[in-house]
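Bench log, entry 3. Co-assembly request; chain sequences pasted below exactly as received.
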Amino acid sequence: MRIAVVLGFLFAGAYLVAVLEARLATGRLRLAAPGWAAMALLGRESVVPRQPDRLFFETAPALLLIAALLAAAVLPLAPGLFITNLATGALFVNAALAYVLVALLMAGWGPDGAYALIGGWRFLGQLIAYSMLIVMPITAVAMRAESLLTTDIVASQTGLWNILYQPLGFVLFFIAAMGVAFLPPFDLPSAEGELAGGVTSEYTGVRLAVFRLGRLVLVITLSAATVVFYLGGWLGPVLPPWAWSAVKILAVSATMLLIGHYLPRIREAHLLAWCWKLGIPLALLNIFIVGVMVLVWP
Amino acid sequence: MNNALAQYGVLLGLAVGTVGLVLSLYAAARALGRARRESGKDVPATSGRLARDPVWVRYHARYYGYALLFLAFDMEMAYMYPWAVVYKQEGLVALLDMGVFLAILFLGLLYGWSQGALRRQ
Amino acid sequence: MIAGARAGTVSGLRRLTAAAMARDLHAIIVPGPEVARARGLDIESAGLQIAATPRHANVLLLVGPVPRELGDAVIVLYAQMMRPRAIFSLGASATPSPLPHADVTADLSQSGLLDGVTRLRSAFSRGAFRLGVSDFDAPALQIRIEYTCPMHPEVVQDQPGSCPKCGMNLVPREASASAEPHHGAEHATPPEYTCPMHPEIVQGEPGSCPKCGMNLVPREAGSADEHAQGHQDADMDHGDMGFMSMVEVTKDLPRSPDGLPMDWIEVPFGPFFPGLPGGLLLTLTLDGDGIAKARAQSLVGGSGALPASGMGAADFVEHLSASDPLAPICYRLLACRTLEAAAGQAPDEEILRGRIAAMERERIASHLGWLALFARQIGFGWLLRRAASLQLQFLHADIKQVMALSPALQALIKRLQRTPLLKSRTAGIGRMVPDTVLRGPVARATGVGDDARSRDKTCSTLGFTAVSRDRGDALARLHVRLDETRHSLALIKAAGAIVLPTPVDIGVISGKGEAAVETPRGEARLQLTLDNGRVIDARLDTPSTHHLDLVAPLLEQQELGDGLTTVASLDLSPWEVVQ
Amino acid sequence: MAVITLQTFFIALFGIAALWFGVVVFRTSSMMRSALALLFSQTALGAMFLAMQAEFLGVLQIMMMATEMSIMAIFMVMFMMDPGGLGEMDMTHQKRLSIAAGVIGALAVSGVALFAHWGPTATVAPAAAEQIRGLGTELLGRSMIIFETAGVTILTAMIAATAVAMPVLQRKKTS
Amino acid sequence: MSPDLLTALIVGAGLFGIGLYGALSQTNLVMIMMGVELILAGALVNLVAFWRFLHPESYAGQMFVLIVMTVMAVEMAVGFGVAIARFRARGSVEMEEARELKG
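Structure output for the full assembly:
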């Protein structure tokens, strides 16, 4: 029951993200649009390119969805409302998200098409850029909570949300989260103007539908992670806890999409250079600052 | 103890269930008909040209300088998580200890930077 | 009913998905969305979403007649779309030869588009599935399997076997059926000869390379596209090797600047690549995601040839105006001016001013269209939508509407100057030095203030001053164009009215004339010869013709995304390229 | 008292998966498949660690190997002759010797495992949260020097890799 | 002894055997490294099993696992560094060729 509620929430959130995405792309708000689009994809043909690595081509969309769902499985929406509550929750989120990379590499390699291939390898470069900025800010969060349990992490923010306690970490994590979900301006692997769709360019019909579903769930998952780690999870006055989680998660997703809408795509060389030459030193600084603060003012 | 194992079971079940969901979607799509095999349809789309050559060739990834450093630098997280959990309880010792560790790693990063590893090759 | 329907009886789930497809139309546009917008079509407000690849499209939208050279590419696009797929033709009833007839045809106008989309929807919801569909096939899609060695691409034969050079099993590869089979002594097409170091040198007989003096090596005509250029060292000889040596394989490969010899692949970007103007074919030899070599060509450029009997003056004006759908008014103006120069006539000042206003209005619209295309290339969603909608409003605006739109345009320009990441995205990309072949905003971005308008008296009286920036990169080109739109607004305001250029009656005269017009892409010049009132010879010199040749050297060693940004920032119009 | 429990079943299941993927690594000619097979072999090991209730180590293994083996994949594709495996090329030598060595090695180690006296086995593992804390205390306590040595090792590796891999000419130009 | 420990140790032995085969039979530096990775993975399984079933109270066992993981990462970083250098110099990472070219 609990699991069904969480899954229902995730898919409903993914649907709303799709509505917003369609709104930004077409300029019109149509609540039914993603539903019709999914239905239409189901009805269209779905071909496998000739001489592909068929195993990879077929596995990638499902793996993307599984990775996104597993990462969401350790994120609580309210006290007691979670799929699992692993003792290593904060680490497990990272572990599951690492398979987003694997899925995209497979999707890039599988079809034996130039645009997809370049997209896949680009995402590996992107991971090398953002990965440390996911891991290190989460470490700082765990330092404050003295636990990797996601419920403990939310509980540790009772007095002051982490976005205020460690704003630097929040900024880094937020940017890196957009990188994981390959949302604009970090949509290097699936860029339309550079690779005509990149890793998604050979997916059609129902396979494309699964791929897009995976991507949407991934966006919701990353928003949920941001909320749990930095925005106090379910904490908040008046409203019931689950409502707070819902509001915050949707707000974070919307922010992610809107930011991308108003920015041009980043260059890969810049992404790598900025993340390593600026991001990692800042993340280390963040750990140090939080370290001192935890000792001085717990 | 069983609690933890049960949780892993739930995660495994979630993964298997997702595979089931995906397969049932594929089955629904299959029920609507198979894709017709037509010439040119299954060639990877390159904006109006039939590019039939295989592209699985030795790929020049220009970020290999970063990749080398990343392989080593990535290891730091294995130590940082257990450290973060006991940080508050251990106090200053932990701060100094990890400070030294991270400073050592950061030296490596600086070395790589100075040698031109941190750029597009 | 649509020709590209899926097979199956209409019932249950199929009916539901057909209804969904009617509500979810994704179009791939031929020749490209920028042409559709320049013709005043608002594709997205009509309910069609613009797809980046034929894989994700279910509507093939033909805007105007398809140029002959794009025929094969359109066939490939159609073949690569998933069923159910429909052809929607605006302003032309005929489709390129083996394609089925257009499922829906409509006038080339916004109302025609809207009407057509309505019919398209009902065609989908009624006919997405039907019994007895036939496969689509065309000669352009035929393939032939040939066998090649993965390590020695020059080894190609029709039968499977092992490589004579290294003994590896040959792998099957697809080649276009029209190319000549590799085995067999006689060649229907004669071999051509090319230099191993300079693949651009190709000639019909053996000889030595004019660039380096090396002996030219023979190559199958028409096979150039199938081989990555890095592999063409046909005289590599290691037949006596005992085992397969990678040292041998890689020693002759060209190396990247960092010294690693990798494989190069040749990838087409175009003619329907999102983010590049439709009809422009960019063939990039990629070394990883870096560009090793580039080749740019226009598939839709005209030859400039006129019918032998010549053309009437009014027809000529229409002909020239239609030659570039991206700047029709400027070319109309160019034709009119040249005819007037030949006839020695000049319209009165009022008309001259009005014409300049029309040209400047087109400049604004064209620059906005470029912004939309550029935004698509650099993945800037907001700018794409904003610039496209402004372009459509400016396209046919009268003077009052132009003035009313002015604040919105100014706001857009201001906003762009404040956008984070835009500067880092464009600065330093595609840097050019001042060069005499450069024209228009591209030249002015290198610090050269040359502008045909500064030689025009009427323009000067309206207070025209040329803008220039000196960085020479994509950012400078962006800034020049933004500044130009501002100046254009001022010019239109000063001119006071917009008058479309119409030819004055030149009578039955003979003579030569020459004129120049600063089109949005730079100065276009026209020389023509009149014989008894008919145009018998016309020589057109356009900016994109020259800019196209610059693409190849400019792109070398750039990152793929940067290279495409460079091309987009040049604002090429493949239509005006004179071949 | 050898009872086959569900736990044993899953340990064996993931163990067999790890072995099978390990075999695939050397049996496919596609380099990408080879690298990803190694990845999934390591992932299966991680799952096996979870089944053995070493939660932190299991999750860590699953996470680290995903990124490291993906990077391995790009290096494979960079440096192998035919990364797509289209040529079915044989890239091995001294096959018989190697198989013999592999089999004998595996048998010898299993023999040790079978016949050594391991003494009584623990049935109860500490709770997962406790494990992380325990490991943290260990890091900052008795194993502190080991931990710092690991840091120095990583530093050495970073320096060695950079110094070897970066082209000499470029090195002079920068800095 | 428990079947769990035995299973784990046999899996470790199997990985060791496969890795040994790979390291000996492959001609390519990168493939040899994959063999070494598998050998190290076999060591990892054994270490985790020993910790779990023999000394769950001592975290030195887990510490060993972390060190082996570090060794894996270090081996990969240095190995690929060498591979890049070799490839740049010779255009190949085949060990066989390395030997022949020298001698």
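The two ends of chain A are 37 Å apart (CA to CA). The first helix of chain A runs from residue 2 to 26.
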